[in-house]
Amino acid sequence: MNTIILSFDKIEGGSMKHYSKKLIARLNDNANQLRIDALRMIYERGAGHPGGCLSCSEIISALYFHYLKIDPQRPHWEDRDRFILSKGHASAILYAALARRGFFDIKELQTWGHPNSRLQGHPDRLRTPGIEMTTGTLGQGLSIASGIGLAARLLQQKWRIYILMGDGECQSGIVWEGAMMASKYCLSNITAIIDYNDVQLDGFCHEIMPLEPFIKKWQSFNFEVVEIDGHSVKEILQALDVTKEIHDRPSVIIAHTIKGKGVSFMENEAKWHGLAPDDEQYRQAITELKGEKNG
Amino acid sequence: MDRIISMRHSYGEALLDCGIKNKKIVVVVADVSSSVKTDFFEKRFPERFFNVGIAEQCLVNVGAGLSLEGFIPFVNTFAGLLLRSFEQIRTCVGYAETNVKLVGGYAGISDYKDGATHYSICDIAVMRSIPNITVVVPADATETKKLVCEIVKWSGPVYLRISRAETPVIFGDNHKVVVGKGQIIREGDDLTIIAVGVMVGRSLLAANILEQEGVKARVINMPTIKPFDKYLIIETAQKTGAIVTAEEHSVIGGLGSAVSECLSQSYPVPIEFIGIKDLFVETGTSHEYLLDHFGLSVNDIIEAAKKVIKRKGNIK
Fold it and tell me: How confident is the model at residue B314 (pLDDT cuts 50, 70, 90)?
């Protein structure tokens, strides 16, 4: 098994596809906008999960504003790529991305969590256009993706399945059941991305239940493993390219991220896993995010 | 009821038959294929058969994933082990309303050699408490076959409960079963025995003996426990005024509870419950032995019938 680990250095060089500075700048802008959208939604609702939204902003931006083959006018378009937010509590940033891409009106974000809203606390496939699968209880994504991957093979379809997982959910046995399944059937049409911010509800993952050696775990389950900086749009895009070219097994991108990224007082703080900011905190957070964008 | 046929065998054959006609049917199993007889399908359609190993949570989610792309997955393990994946069933099947057919084999206490770890006496209670999930329990090999075909057509999640037992054949080939409907299979007006699964045959035997003693028992076969055929149950309460429920399941949360929930709100009548009392049943030498010794014998049904008629008289 000649699994290649692509370190940041290796991804920089070699025969990687070139992505223009303009595209990368745009996707960074989109990521920042998604951060602002998600924080505003969480602030206005007085509930949600800011930390895990801020950590995956570049990943969601790269997927929804460039990489995924999707059509907002046709959410059920047969040839679309499938995306599952396995870490369903980061719903705010996904809803923001769907709205910004035109799956529904941006104003609808204000209804999130309200009675009769199509936007439930956690993603609900039956209510929201663009939501592939209902999630929220952790650990489900990879095994569901395996079922979709088998279906794609039976249907002889070329579209791919992307899932975004949290690091904490990899503490669940079901994740590794799904990993064995994807490996057994060599489901190379699956790319799992792990938002490895090392923070979960009760504290640091490495203290609550350590995941390391994480890369070795995935390698031993016969996954192609790519390790990147999850806040580098360029590395995200290039890692996605790498996994597309793997034809004999599933892939996982371990994206190192910072929980609460972009808002100084939220960074690496477990208390911001599932807490809404108050008025002053919200103002400061938005100021920082807007400043960062201009700076 | 002279012929004895294995329900699981009948299930395996029906699954294969439906699989021949409908290419959307796929089978997922958790290392029990030769036991629950999905191996008939496996041999014929290996490309539509997936064994996840001893990983019941994954089993259910793989089924959910396949159904998202339009396949009709039959997801199989022992009923007692399927509850390992309760959360996946609730979230990814019930709540997400995926078209997954969950099949619990070796249900009730039919896996008599293995004992309480492998019995399933809470499954009906659990499944029927999950919104969107239809719960069906065939009474014999004939009904098993018919129900498999019906649930292929039924849009939405289903839990199909299959016994390991070899049971008397009650119904002929012209037997009709409709999801959501119960059926009167023997007329009588002194009381109604409402039964599911292997207890249907035993209830018919009890009704025959009761008749010799001058008691006319109506018998209702209730192959669908959810959605519940309330009209039939209310009608029978009005007509016979007394009910005995009979199921190879805990007396808590199953058919008896469904009947009680229905009648207490509409037309209360005395009810007696035949089922497994709130206890873990031991290993046995045969399924029949266990049924006879843990409160599910023909005589237990007869005694319950006499008791409920007496209670009916007291109310009058």
Answer: confident
* Token duo for residue B186: 């023997």
Q: pLDDT at position A117, please?
A: 97
Q: List B residues 13-52 in contact with A (Cβ-Cβ < 8 A).
A: 26, 28, 47-48, 50, 52
Arch. (CATH architecture) of A8-294: 3-Layer(aba) Sandwich (3.40)
Shortest Cα–Cα distance, A147 to chain B (Å): 4
Judged against a pLDDT cut of 80, whether residue A293 lies above it is answered with no
Residue of B nearest to A122 (CA): B91
ipTM: 0.96
Contact (CB<8Å) B96/A143 = no
Percent of chain A with pLDDT over 70: 94
Residue A3: is its pLDDT beyond 60? no
What would the two tokens of residue A278 be?
């108050």
* CATH superfamily of the B4-168 domain: Thiamin diphosphate (ThDP)-binding fold, Pyr/PP domains (3.40.50.970)
Q: Give which of B29, B47, B61 to mutate to test A binding, by max A Cβ within 10 Å.
A: B61
C-beta atoms of B47 and A140 within 8 A? no
Exposure string over A215-234, b if 16+ CB within 10 A, otherwise e:
bebbbebbbbbbbbbbbbbb
CATH code of the domain occupying B183-315: 3.40.50.920
Domain boundaries, chain A: 8-294
C-alpha span between B300 and B292 (Å, rounded): 8
| Cβ-based contacts of A137 with chain B (< 8 Å) | 87, 91
- Model confidence over B243-297: pLDDT tens digits? 999 999 999 999 999 999 999 999 999 999 999 999 999 999 999 999 999 999 9
Q: How far is CA A211 from CA A171, A172, B45, B272, in A?
A: 7, 11, 39, 54
